[in-house]
Amino acid sequence: MPLPTIVLGAGLSGLYATRLLEQRGRDVLLVEARERVGGRIVSVATGDGTHGWDMGPSWLWPAMNPRAARLVDALGLVLYPQHVDGGAVMEDASGRLQRLPHTWATEPPSMRVAGGLAALAEALGGALQRTTIRLGTRAKGLRLIDEATVEVRLEDGDALRATQVISTLPPRLLVDTLAWAPALPADWQAARRATPTWMAGQAKFLATYAEAFWRRDGLSGMAMSQRGPLVEIHDASDAAGNHAALFGFVGVPHAGRRQLGRDGLVRLALAQLERVFGPRAAAPQAVHLKDWTEETCTATPADAAPSAGHPAYPQAALPSPWNGRVHLAGSEFAGDFGGYLEGALEAAERAVATACAVPEDRDGGS
After folding, report:
1. Beta-strand (E) ranges in 78-215?
2. Residues 6 or more apart whose Cβ sits within 8 Å of residue 220
3. What is the per-residue pLDDT across 100-159, written as a single tens digit (0 to 9) for each?
4. How many angstroms separate the CA atoms of 32 and 37, rounded?
5. Distance CA 172, CA 140 (A)
6. Rounded to an integer, what is the distance from CA 61 to the centroid of its chain?
7. pTM above 0.70?
8. How many angstroms from the chain centroid is the CA of residue 65?
9. Is residue 158 a contact partner of residue 151, using CB atoms and an 8 Å limit?
């Protein structure tokens, strides 16, 4: 009886790879360290469950992201545009404000998934039929049994066997959290350690409100700041503005965030929102802070150091004797759109194609 294909990581790339494997008739074991699917896709659900405020990625661009657009459509999900109607606010380093009559809108427009991006991950996971999902299960090592079999060792002591493994771990986690037998070449590991994990050094802050009052004030919710702690702010509400929120990217490096602590950072962020949007912004219904550098399933200590600009994410294959048995997916291994949702999907397609090029009718040896 053929062994299953094992997929490591139930983020977008892992979920999509699993979907593609099922479509090719493969049985899959999907292993995820977190207690949920989605990886870096995570949304805070509203009380009525009709909307999710994204604390990871927020946007996609269908005109540039055809895979993501097709997947959203196939899963019956709905997109809506990022709210950009109204003016923007600029804040200089001294806190002086300048209100502009317009907002910078991207072209093509930035789009959000109705219900939050977690709806995409949940729909992917919910549609799987030939897959066993093990949540809260961290892989700690890979061992090549023979030319046809890979053993995946788990922290709980289990050892799983497969003819093919697809890993969606970011490059640094791939070499720093997995023990490889035989070991990977030192220069190959060094190249992966030099590859930052996209957004792993970042933090996002979100404040929710009873109404999107800034819209009535003629503002889009967008602001850019040289003072901070939020360097870029956007409206994070649902399409109708009924579930209102503002979110911002935290510009304080990880070391500064740790020194401030959560309460200190929240206090400064709310003071900034009050400066920019008025006194109503100082009294949110709730606040949420997601510091991705603290997520051990995403970041390593090396990710605490900010990277300059968008990192280069060249495709990489594992060296012999691992190539042909373990295949690399995940957004940091994408040939195009590395770091983005589209890149996660592209990398999954490539990994599945190479994995399925190898016959699966092997029993795994002894």
Report:
1. 79-81, 87-91, 97-100, 111-113, 131-134, 139-146, 149-154, 159-162, 165-167, 179-181, 203-209
2. 83, 84, 85, 86, 87, 88, 103, 214, 235
3. 999 988 899 999 999 999 999 999 999 999 999 999 999 999 999 998 899 999 999 999
4. 7
5. 14
6. 16
7. yes
8. 16
9. no
Classify residue 261 by burial, with Cβ atoms within 10 Å: 0-12, 13-18, 19+.
exposed
What CA–CA distance (Å, rounded) separates 249 from 259? Answer: 18
Q: Which of 205, 214, 310 is nearest to 262 (CA)?
A: 205
For 204, the token pair is: 């996002």
**Structural domains of the chain, with CATH:** 1-41+117-196+310-366 (3.50.50.60)
22: left (phi over 0), alpha (psi -120 to 50) or beta: alpha
Residue 87 and residue 102 in contact, taking contact as beta carbons nearer than 8 Å: yes
Write out pLDDT tens, residues 55-88. Answer: 999 999 999 999 999 999 999 999 999 999 999 9
pLDDT over 70 (residue 94): yes
Q: Round to whole Å and give the CA distance between 312 and 335.
A: 10
Indicate the residue type of 205: F
The alpha carbon dihedral of 142, 143, 145, 151 has a sign of negative
Strands 52-54 and 139-146: unpaired
Task: Please give the Cα distance from 292 to 185 (Å, whole number).
Answer: 29
